[in-house]
Amino acid sequence: QVQLVESGGGLVQAGGSLRLSCVASGSIFSINTMGWYRQVPGKQRELVAVITRGGSTTYADSVKGRFTISGDNAKNTVYLQMNSLKPEDTAVYYCYSNYGGLGALNAWGQGTLVTVSS
Fold first, then answer.
1. Which of 31, 12, 29, 19 is nearest to 81 (CA)?
2. What's residue 94's pLDDT?
């Protein structure tokens, strides 16, 4: 199994920046992909950005050019650098990991709240 612990959320003014971190533990050798999703009350959880073990990245259109996902394999950590934040970025951000081979599983962190004030 893989366990994920996020940190770095908080309150920031529009136009500001935050960096989220997610540390993975457990069966880290089996991780295929890590990334970030976000959710606001009453809406479905949506993809923000993911990065594969090989370093390929995918971003939601709404964050392209503003957010950057990166990974540090030595620290088993993935980061989400969020710049030019907008009030609509306000959400609970969840770290995500897909791990394993055939029949791969998903793991989620507990979530960290990001609030962007106008």
1. 19
2. 98
- Structure-token pair, residue 76: 């088993």
Element (H, E) at 25: strand 18-26
Pair 37, 93: CB distance under 8 Å: yes
Q: To 10 degrees, the CA torsion angle through 21, 24, 30, 36?
A: -30
Each residue's pLDDT tens digit, 44-59: 999 999 999 999 999 9
Tell me the one-letter amino acid at 47.
L
Of 72, 82, 86, 97, which Cα lies nearest the Cα of 9?
A: 82
Please answer whether residues 33 and 53 qualify as being in contact, where contact means their C-beta atoms are separated by less than 8 angstroms.
yes
